[in-house]
């Protein structure tokens, strides 16, 4: 099981960016590049960013 490494602010930004990219694709504003919105959307929903792992980045608040 992967450890959660995406904090609240990071999560909200990722979900918004993902939704905006997908909306831009479905409205015809941008082409297939809009499907890239799936990546930030899923990393925001599941709170795990694989790109953070090798660098030890964690945007969650520490207890």
Q: How many domain units? A: 1
Mean pLDDT, to the nearest integer, reads 95
Terminal Cα span? 21 Å
Percent of residues in helices: 40-55%
* Poorly predicted tracts of residues: none
Largest sheet: none
The number of distinct helices, counting runs of at least 4 residues, comes to 2
Q: Which structural category fits the helices and strands?
A: mainly alpha
Strand content: under 5%
Q: What is the alpha-carbon Rg in Å?
A: 13 Å
Specify the overall morphology.
Answer: elongated
Overview of this protein structure:
This protein has 63 residues and is mostly helical. The chain has one domain (8-53). It has two helices and no strands. Helix 1 (8-26) packs antiparallel against helix 2. The mean pLDDT is 95.
Please outline what is shown here.
With 63 residues, the protein is mostly helical.
Write the layout of secondary structure elements.
Elements: H1 8-26, H2 38-46
Helix pairs in contact: 1-2
List keywords for this structure.
63 residues; mainly alpha; 2 helices; 44% helix; 0% strand; elongated
């Amino acid at each position: 099981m992967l450890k959660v490494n995406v904090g609240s602010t990071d999560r909200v930004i990722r979900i918004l960016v993902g939704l905006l990219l997908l909306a831009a694709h479905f409205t015809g504003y941008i082409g297939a590049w809009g499907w890239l919105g799936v990546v930030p959307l899923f990393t925001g929903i599941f709170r795990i960013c694989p790109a953070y792992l090798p660098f030890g980045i964690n945007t969650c608040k520490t207890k």
